[in-house]
Amino acid sequence: MTSKGTITLVHLYPREMSIYGDLGNTRCLAARIRRHGYDCVVHDHHPGMPFPETAHLLLGGGGQDSGQSRVEEDLLAIGDRLRGLAADGTPMLMICGMYQMFGHTFLTHEGVEVDGLGILDVTTRGQSTRMIGGVVLDTEFGPVVGFENHSGATVLSPGQRPFGTVRVGHGNDGVSGTEGARTHHVIGSYLHGPLLPANPAVTDALIAPAVELATGRPFEPEDTDDRLADEARTRQIARLLAT
Amino acid sequence: MLRTMAAIVAGKTARLAARRRGGGGSAFPGLVAERVDPKILAKTLSRLPDGIVVVSGTNGKTTTTRMLAAIIAAHGKKVFTNPTGSNFTRGVISSMLTEVPLSGRLNADIAVLELDEGHALQFAKVVAPTYALLLNVARDQLDRFAEIDTTAKLLATLASQTTRCIVLNRDDPFVARIALSVETDDVRYFGTDPLAADRVPSLHEADVRFEDDFTPPQPTPRDGLLHPHDSRSFSVRFGEQILGDVTLQQRGLAAMINATAAVTMAKAVLGGDFHKGIAAAALREVTPPFGRGEVIDANGAPLELVLVKNPAGFTVALDTYGDEPVTTMIAINDDYADGQDVSWLYDVSFESLRANGVALTSGVRAYDMALRLDYDDVAVDTIELDLDAALERLLTAYAGRPTRIFCTYTAMMALRRTLAARFDLPDFGEDGA
């Protein structure tokens, strides 16, 4: 099969912000892009490095507080570029810590306020207790399963779309019933798992706009065999709903 | 005194009762004894003439403790240890109950104790360790300890409460840095010899907490440095002195690093009485702990049980065994003791299994494991959630072939139990986890 085009995937801060399986989202996207007949280039972006000229799809993960403070400066330096890419419809998936940094502000449990990029219309406040456990969501991509582990409670501004509504788990703050946030093609979420491997509908929803940006043509998917992903997802959802 | 005696009686009674029920759970008698006398641990251990050695860190505690106890015992010391992986305070008390007379006077010179990193501080609050051997800090069960940084802090606090000597892993930035925060003069290191560094894959997490990288001081003759020769044999260099070659009964780099840690600590404990020949001989005799590289004779074919708990451990295990033409099964559960979040499987590369494929995935998350392998283009023959059914298939459909099972903690315990009944293996205790 000849390649239908090349997608450039940028993984933001894989060293500092990739604590728990976040690399899995990158591995999954790259594999799935190739299975759909496109080439994929993965570019790791580290603090202080120039941001790549070409970026069709951005990924960011969760980190510890120490990792988060390491990337703050760089994130502000490339902030205008990221805001521009988001507004132009570049798909992005930001998990946990990077989801928080894509909001307006993050108020740590110690009372320090950290500025975010403001791409997602959310604010986060650190809490003393962690929200940990399996999560089942209803989303426009269908049911989604994952695992959350965060102490930040995120509040959506009125008008901000969530990524999904919570059927099992805490979600953004344990009370609103919402999980994550979505603006343009940017998804922020607390879901580890990692999110993408067992939820291929979300993966394809990120790939489609990236393909359009890269090739100027609509996404032409191949028939993929998703039986393993479907089994893993539906079984885990059934288990979590039963508890 | 009376209270201690009462606690020991209560604990021993609980132990007998638990035995009669045939139940596992080695922490229970310890819980009973601790209820009666909360100071029982401190009172009993603080009387030991040569003190208390604690071994902590994410990976390799059980193996290292076993090796260290064997080396010290081979030098003629009476060693009290907690050999069943009972690494919480109650587990330690439980092990003690089998050996302590009612007077509470343990018949031992020294205690060598494996301590769960999450519970090490609780232990140190009761008894200050004389020696601490700190192995590594890896992503393990983040739903339990929340963050690696937190685990690193726990170990640093444990080190600061240690009275005589601390042995640190110089290759693990989280552990090596602990040297900066302790007051004891005697800080030693173990690690891989910088001269052999190119033969050792990078196993440790990046420590991004600080701007500057902490560089451990130049090795001294008190520091043990590993030279791996092949998958089973190695030597350890202390300055000009070489210990080895040693061939372990357990294969792989992880076991060699554990052995290096153990001899470095043994040298610190024994001082001038340490003999490298005795240490090497003791290491050769150490059998792997249950399920940690243990080889079981399954109707004439070797079946290897390899416990995997986190990305670092799984990566080392695959590095040791991955490309051998052996029938492979992977069993993943997600109970509390396994870690409930299986995301970590995506931090491991399974490419070394691609050539031979995987015969079976099993456990509660068998489909997630098969999916993970699919993303690395590793073919899976059968997915069987039920562990016993999967084991049965492995033993019948692949009869006569060498097999290997990589398994998480509760999957290992369940499989080991079935294998013990089937092949008449010795019984074993359970973790306090």
Output the keywords.
heterodimer; A: 243 residues; alpha/beta; Rossmann fold; six-stranded mixed β-sheet; 6 helices; 12 strands; 30% helix; globular; B: alpha/beta; UDP-N-acetylmuramoyl-L-alanine:D-glutamate ligase; Protein-Tyrosine Phosphatase, Chain A; nine-stranded mixed β-sheet; 15 strands; disordered C terminus
Q: Summed up, what is this model?
A:
The complex is a heterodimer of chains A (243) and B (433). By secondary structure, chain A is α/β, with parallel strands linked by helices.
Account of the protein in words:
The complex is a heterodimer of chains A (243) and B (433). Chain A has 243 residues and is of the alpha/beta class. Chain A has six helices and twelve strands. Chain A is globular. Chain A starts with 5 loop residues before the first strand and ends with a helix. By secondary structure, chain B is α/β, with parallel strands linked by helices. Chain B has two domains: 284 residues, UDP-N-acetylmuramoyl-L-alanine:D-glutamate ligase (3-Layer(aba) Sandwich); 132 residues, Protein-Tyrosine Phosphatase, Chain A (Alpha-Beta Complex). Helices cover 37% and strands 19% of the residues of chain B. Chain B has 15 helices and 15 strands. Chain B has a nine-stranded mixed beta sheet, sandwiched between helices. Chain B has a six-stranded mixed beta sheet with strand order 10-11-15-12-13-14, sandwiched between helices. In chain B, helix 1 runs antiparallel to helix 2, helix 2 crosses helix 5 and helix 4 crosses helix 10. The chains are: A alpha/beta (243), B alpha/beta (433). At the A-B interface, helix 1, helix 2, strand 7, strand 8 and helix 6 of A face helix 13 of B.
